[in-house]
Amino acid sequence: MDISLQLYSIKEEAGENFAGALELARKSGYQGVEFAGYFGNSPAR
Fold first, then answer.
1. Which of 19, 24, 23 is nearest to 41 (CA)?
2. CA 12-18-22 angle, 5° bins
3. Which of 8, 20, 23, 32 could cross-link to 4 by cystine, CB 3.0-4.6 Å?
């Protein structure tokens, strides 16, 4: 079973450094994320 992270759980990091938050999730071993908004970024980005 794949385990994903709800980005709201790390909303402070995502709000300050969205790409860094995604990298943190990846390095922590999460297979995917559930978005809780895009923290000022466009979905295409």
1. 19
2. 100
3. 32
User: Could you list the residue range(s) of the whole structural domain that residue 21 is in?
Assistant: 4-34
Q: Fill in the DSSP letter of residue 43.
A: T
Q: Fill in the amino acid letter for 38.
A: Y
Give the chain's domain count: 1
pLDDT in tens, 1-45: 789 999 999 999 999 999 999 999 999 999 999 988 888 888 887
DSSP per residue, 22-33: HHHHHHTT-SEE
DSSP state of 36: S
Question: Do 44 and 16 contact (CB within 8 A), yes or no?
Answer: no
